[in-house]
Amino acid sequence: MEFGTQPEKPLICLLGQSALDRRAYRLLLRMELRHEVAVEADFAPTSVWAAMRTRPALVLVDADVASAEIVEAVQMIARLRPETAILVLSAAVEPRQVQAWGTCPISGYVVKDGGLEDLRAALKAVLAGGRFFSDGVRAALRSGQAGRDGKPKLSRRETELLPLLAVGLTLREAASKMTISYKTADSYRTSLLRKLGLRDRIQLVRYAIRQRIVEP
């Protein structure tokens, strides 16, 4: 580097579902933390792919829930740019919520309630090649990694129900096939969707096809 030149700043990518929230964090990073966001995107695969073409040093992920779409986006980043650090910024603090991030190769996790100093410390650590996790989340992440082993940990009945719903059976038909009541099947379905971070049957079918549980 020539004398008198400024060190090149790391390229930062901001991922978030809401354009308004992304704008707010872009301004926060610029005004308070002296970091510029070079590119921003939502969690759609095409958006993530386009953002990764910029070869960012860091991806800041703004997400309060580790839904299937968001987890897939984070895992896609790791596949496309394994050298890129990933820092999650989330409001989730309950162990069950945090565990959902256990399958993601992240370098840090900042709880939004931790304030600006936590985010400042996280950016400094992660951009230097280190790691940063807000108090109380590391154990939950380890639990998620151990319990999931790359996949959500479903009960035997939830595992049995998943392919039945994915191939098009109604909940009542699936309950009959499993020889359980409709009410019990409904509770299994609710738990199943929650654990997988899915909203409805359409997302469940897509998940089952991606995981090769059923044929397309």
Structure description:
There is one protein chain. The protein has 216 residues and is α/β, with parallel strands linked by helices. The chain has two domains: 137 residues, Response regulator (Rossmann fold, 3-Layer(aba) Sandwich), CATH 3.40.50; 55 residues, Winged helix-like DNA-binding domain superfamily/Winged helix DNA-binding domain (Arc Repressor Mutant, subunit A), CATH 1.10.10. Helices cover 50% and strands 12% of the residues. It has ten helices and six strands; from the N terminus they run E-H-E-H-E-H-E-H-E-H-E-H-H-H-H-H. Strand 5, helix 5 and strand 6 form a beta-alpha-beta unit. Helix 8 crosses helix 9. It is elongated.
Can you say what the CATH homologous superfamily of the largest domain is? Response regulator
CATH topology of the largest domain: Rossmann fold
Low-confidence stretches: 1-5
CATH first level of the largest domain: which class? Alpha Beta
Could you estimate the helical fraction of the residues in percent? 40-55%
* Total strand segments: 6
**Overall average residue pLDDT:** 86
Integer count of domains = 2
First CA to last CA: what distance? 55 Å
Report the radius of gyration as a whole number of Å.
20 Å
